[in-house]
Structure formats: C-alpha cells, structure tokens
Amino acid sequence: MEKILVAGATGTTGRHIINLLKNDQYFEPVAMIRKESQRSDFETEGIKTVMGDLTEDISNVTEGIDKVIFAAGSGGKAVDAVDRKGAMGLTDAAKKHKIKKFVMLSSLGADNPQDDGELKEYLQAKRDADEYLANSGITYAIVRPGALNNETPTGKIFLEKSLSSRDGEIPRGDVAQVLVRSLHDDVANREVFEILNGEHIIADALTKVQVENA
C-alpha cells in the first residue's frame, strides 16, 4: 500500500480524507500533526502520524512517504505562512524525497485573485502555491472547489477544467473523495480542475481528467 501524507489532517476536510484513506485498499494515511497531544487522536484508530508545523522546517516530513495531499488551511489567520509558504515548503519536501504525486486542495478563484477583493490575499497565496507546485517537476493534481460546507456528501459533483460560474458550494466530504481519487496514477496527472456540487457521480466526473494508458 502507498503511504499518503495528509497535511491538514486535524481539520474538518482532513478528517474526511483520513477516514476515506484508512478504509482504502490502495492507500495508508499518515496524519501530519502540529502538537504531541493530537497524536493519540489518530493512533487510537491505528493511523500513523508525523510531527510537522507548516510555519517551520518540514523538510523531513515526507521521508518514507509515497504521495501527499495538502488540505491544510490558515482560516485567514496566517495566510502567507500556511497557505503560501507552508504549501511551498511541503512541495520542496516532496521533491526532496521524490514523492510520486502531490494532490493540492486549492480554491475557485485562485486563477484570478484580482477578481475578489475580500479574498484577494488568500486566493493570491493559493495561486502562488499552485504555480510553485506546477513548476516543481512533481506529478500533481490541483483541485479547486467552490465554497466548502458541512452538508451531507452527495457523491455527485460538477467538474470542468475551468468553470464558467464561480457561484456555488460543495460538501467537504465530496471534496475529500475527489482528492483521494486524484491520488491514483490514472487520474489527473499534471491537471488543474474546478468542482462544485452537481449531478455527476464523482468517478464519472473525473473521467474528464482521466489519464489514458497510465
């Protein structure tokens, strides 16, 4: 099984990701935590952990890891340190240890941060992190969802390389499923795509970024 480092494992979306991975036949989650007190939350479920703070040196957190999901977020409190530099630091660590794939949770609007005054700083940080990953040489998938909510996952989304409308939301559980599916070698290699809640079963929607003969 491939070991998957989950940055942001203690967050709401991160917990969805961990729960999917721990029951997956192909992947084994490794939760990245900032505090020793968080370790037992995962290890009681048999989930491995690694200490790492995105605002500090994380150059060794990817040692022994096969693939990465970045689902961390500052919540607006340390945008540059976490959403920008933290993501870049994890990209550097992934490159150092020759990670096979890096799946980035980004955001709708990251392609044009100037369009959103209220979220401009956040979206610019996401854009910078996305571009840094795309230029790193690592195989990547960059997933840009609309506003996240805590509604019950539907298992259905709307996916385009670039959505014509940026209005809409999507349950965190559905985003988590897209991120986990994007870990596979035959899905979304060096792809950027956008998702909202929709009517297409996730597996079917992802055929738009399916890799032939992977």
Automatic annotation (TrEMBL):
<dbReference type="InterPro" id="IPR036291">
    <property type="entry name" value="NAD(P)-bd_dom_sf"/>
</dbReference>
<protein>
    <submittedName>
        <fullName>SDR family oxidoreductase</fullName>
    </submittedName>
</protein>
<feature type="domain" description="NAD(P)-binding">
    <location>
        <begin position="8"/>
        <end position="185"/>
    </location>
</feature>
<dbReference type="Pfam" id="PF13460">
    <property type="entry name" value="NAD_binding_10"/>
</dbReference>
<dbReference type="InterPro" id="IPR016040">
    <property type="entry name" value="NAD(P)-bd_dom"/>
</dbReference>
